[in-house]
Structures are given as structure tokens and as C-alpha cells.
Description:
The radius of gyration is 19 Å and the shape is globular. Helices cover 48% and strands 16% of the residues. Helix 4 crosses helix 6 and helix 6 (142-150) packs across helix 7. By secondary structure, the chain is of the alpha/beta class. The site of 3-methylmercaptopropionate-CoA (MMPA-CoA) (1HE) has 22 residues, from helix 2, helix 3 and strand 5.
Amino acid sequence: xxxxxxxQRGKVAIxxxxxxxxxxxxxxxxxxxIDRFFDRPDKAIRAVVLQAExxxxxxxxxxxxxxxLNRSPVEFMRMCxxxxxxxxxxxxxxxxxxxxxxxAVVGGGxxxxxxxxxxxxxRSTFFALPEGQRGVYTGGGATVRVAxxxxxxxxxxxxxxxxxxDVQRGFEVGLAHEIVETGTAETRALAIAEAAAEHxxxxxxxxxxxxxxxxxxxxTDGLYAEALMAGMIMTNPNLRPSLEAFFAKAAPxxxxxx
Length: 258
Ligand code: 1HE
């Protein structure tokens, strides 16, 4: 792929956005590459790291391409649907995706990050939706995904009051799940991905495909769906060795850590 580098390391695929000259802005080709990867990932892949070249994670929609294509409303709406399809495949694809954030995570870059399941951010990270200031509008799912993470009220405030959140503020509202020293987000994301790749695949399936969907349902439907998923997972024969390790006090101890 031209815009995304894909490296497979055991059960983990490392996807690297590689348009640093444009601050990894998302053009049509990059979205198509993301879509293609998440449409049919290799069966051996059990977790993904999403990272970026250069000092910034992603500057959002490629504004130059947008300017040059001079899209009609329908063309732009179709483009948004392509973004939604690619990001949905990532969010609901049953494989954990760990993003390594740094520098700008803005506009469509924040929309991309919001479709990942674990967000590790180094201290250089900042989050913004400069849509109000630039007279543009989110089209890659922020009004749904980012709103759900940090509340619709904060999303509106961020866009109207043109706020840029530093990494600490982003962490406090759920945009980042962990803050690490500058330059180390990729290493930490890889460690999380390698551990997640060892989870039972059915458990990861339930976590990734189930939890957001259940939260779109009524209480009754959600609890029913949870019981169905739990019935599949909790009766899986693979669970028995894990419980036996716990009884033998051979399982990792739960203790507070990041
Ligand atoms: C770009 C883009 C881009 C940089 N599209 N080319 N997103 C934005 O409004 C963010 C726009 N970008 C920025 O605010 C800044 O570039 C950054 C804060 C991300 C980085 O600043 P800096 O000083 O490191 O870089 P720079 O000098 O601003 O940019 C370097 C080059 O990248 C420059 O090109 P050059 O030819 O002059 O070297 C920039 O033009 C280019 N560049 N960002 C195209 N986004 C589905 S809708 C989603 C809604 C949106 O995402 S709207 C976009 C929001």
C-alpha cells in the first residue's frame, strides 16, 4: 500500500500512516487502504497497532485534496460514507486496535483515533476539532464516536469555543486512555497489542463487536444480548485452563497499574 505501511509481527499487525509531509492527512487513497486492510485482515492477526510517521498522528481530512477536487455535496457525502465504512470495519472488526497518538490528533485524525479501542498518547499529543474556526464540518463520525466518548456537550463546546485539549485534558475526558513519555507511545501500544493478541478470540470478539452495539439498544435488549454473548464465552472449553490457573494461584495477580 502506498500511504500505509503494514508490518506483521507474529499475531500483531502494525499499520503506519506515512504521509508525514502532509501531517498524515487523510486523502481518499489512505481511507481506501484502511478499508481494504480491515475488510479482510490476515487470519493470523489478533491485534493491530495504528501509528504514524513523523511528529503528528493525523491532521484530519486532506484539505488540499478537498480543495483541488472541489467536490459537490453528494460527492462529499459519498466520501463520508467511505470513511464511515472503513472506520466501522475497524471499530467492529473483532480485532483490538491500539492507537499510538502523538502531536496533532485533529479533525478526521480524532475521528480515526476514536474508532480505535485503546488510545495511548504521548505527552506531545493534542486534540482539536477546528471545524468551527475553518468553516468545515466533521464527516468521519465525530458527532457519534467522539460525542459518545466525551459527551455531545463537550464536542459542541470544543468546536464552538475552538478549544485545543492538551494530553492531560484529553485523558480526563476519555480521548486518551494512557499517557506515556514523548516518543514511547508506539512501544507501549505494541506491548498492549501483543498481550491482547493472546486473549481468547471469542472474548475479544464479544468485547469489540458487542459493547458499543449493546449500548445502542434498549435496556431489555442490551441485557438479553449480553446474556447471549456471555453464554457463548463463559461456556467455552478454553476457559477451563484459565480458571484452573486461577485456582492454582498461577494466574497473574490483579493489582492497580495503568
Ligand atoms: C495538510 C493538512 C491537512 C497539514 N490537509 N495538508 N484539520 C485541520 O484543520 C488541521 C490542519 N493542519 C494543521 O493545523 C497543522 O498542519 C498541524 C497542527 C496539524 C501541524 O502543524 P505544523 O506546523 O507541524 O505543520 P504545517 O506547516 O501546518 O503543515 C505542514 C504541511 O502539511 C503543509 O504543507 P506544505 O506544502 O506547506 O509543506 C500543510 O499544508 C500540510 N498539511 N495539515 C492537507 N489537513 C471527513 S471530514 C473530517 C473533517 C476534517 O478533518 S477538517 C480538517 C481539520
